[in-house]
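Troubleshooting log. The previous structure file for this entry was overwritten by mistake, so regenerating from the original sequence record. Sequence copied from the archived sheet and checked twice against the printout by T.R.
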Amino acid sequence: MSRCQSTVFRLFSLRIGLRIKTHLSSPVDQFCRNKSRYTGKMNINSTVRLNDGVEMPLFGLGMYLSEPGSSAANAASSALKCGYKLIDTAIYYKNEDDVAKGVRDSGVDRKNIFIVTKIAEHGYDVTVEAVKTSLKNLKTDYVDLFLIHWPLGGKNVETYKALLDMKKEKLVRSVGVSNFGIHHLKGLEEAGLPTPSVNQIELHPFMKRDELVKYCKDKGITLMGFSPLARSKKNDDPDLIRIAKAHGKSVAQVMIRWGLQKGFVTIPKSTNPERIKDNANVFDFQLTDEEMKALAAKPDDFNAGENEWNPVVSPWEG
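Regenerated output below.
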């Protein structure tokens, strides 16, 4: 890498506060040739290094609400064929086996795919068995990232310890959490447990969670944002429409790009092959500082889930 390339890459890494690895050099090469302002471009192969050294793709496909069966399998296969490198599923979604079929049908080598799944039931023995069941469902020898799906119901410490033991056995590469608030994360820390590698939470311009995001970044926890499109419930927002028109993009693409520029691992969900392709078409433009400020000014209390489900604020039950 040339001195110019190295300088640009360091600036970009500092800007988003993550150690990102970009496998394609064209954005940097273009900057060095044209001497123009570097826009911090990423690509579909960009990764973040987790606090345990594991490289995780910055962009992937969410599988929540993807109906078990051919629809979910086709979604996973379509995404991988489009160049996606990450698939996010969960035991609760009941489509782990469909992800396995999608991986097989895609023809993409398993070693080039980052699979995330989650456990919702807590307890040491329950977790050990759940990991083994997930491996069987996913037809793989290991899971790249295993998350505690939510802190509800207690026994989080036992569950986390079990996942760490599964990591020692090389059945899991990295261990993290989902829907954890600051007090939950402190609960794990006070129990003397290693810092989670990832916290997956709802993140979009209308649910920015600045305090929690800052806490995670300060602790070296990578943020992974689900519902980056706010379930399309904010598609009529005037600023989003204006920004989308300025870039010749859709509102969905603007929201995805917002998450990526914030440094979040971003996992839009779709089972429509064309939308899956469109959702990945977010690496050829950059939101300006003014546009990011406009989105930062949005109210920060919109929960896109049903019944305002928000386990991030639930009590810590150990």
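Residues 1-19, 22-39 have pLDDT under 50 and may be disordered. Archived copy saved in two places this time.
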